[in-house]
Amino acid sequence: xxxxxxxxxxxxxxxxxxxxxxxxxxxxxxxxxxxxxxxxxxxxxxxxxxxxxxxxxxxxxxxxxxxxxxxxxxxxxxxxxxxxxxxxxxxxxxxxxxxxxxxxxxxxxxxxxxxxxxxxxxxxxxxxxxxxxxxxxxxxxxxxxxxxxxxxxxxxxxxxxxxxxxxxxxxxxxxxx
Length: 177
Prior knowledge:
The chain has an 8-stranded mixed β-sheet, sandwiched between helices. The chain starts with a helix and ends with a strand. The chain contains 7 helices and 8 strands. It is α+β, with helices and mostly antiparallel strands. The protein has helices at residues 3-15, 31-43, 59-70, 81-84, 92-96, 141-145, 157-171, and strands at 22-27, 48-53, 74-80, 101-106, 123-127, 131-135, 149-154, 175-176. The chain has one domain: Endonuclease, Chain A, CATH 3.30.870.10. Helix content is 38%, strand content 24%.
C-alpha cells in the first residue's frame, strides 16, 4: 500500500467525509449525545417531520419542533390517546397551536373481550424522509436523564420506507386534537 493512499484514507476519515449510517445510543450513559442528536436533526430539518410518540413532555424537544415549524417545516405528531388527552404535562396543547404542526390522538386496537383499548406505544420520528429515530425512550426528561433506554438514529432507506408507510396508516385513522 502506498504512503499517499494511507495519508488520503486518514484525511478522509479525520475530515468527516465518512459518517455512520446508524448510531445507537444507550441511556442514561449517552443521554447528552442522544438528546443532542435528536435536537440537531430536528433543527436541521428542511421539509417535514413525522412523529409517533407515546409520551412527550420534554420541553426542549418541543421548542425545537416549534422553531422548525416557524421556518416552514411541516410537522405531524401522533400521540397516544390515553396518556395525552387530559395530561397537563403533555406537549400536545403547546404544539397544536402552531401553524405547520398537526397533532392527533390514537387509541390502540380494541381488545377481543371488548373491555379495553390497547395503546399507541411507539417512539418514532422521521425527519425529511431521510433519518429515522426509533427506540424505547419516551420524549421526557426522565427518559433522557434517568431511565435505561435505547435510541437508534438510522438513514437506512428500507427501514425509513417501512416506518413511513406504517405512520401514514396510523395518521389516516387518528383523531385530530
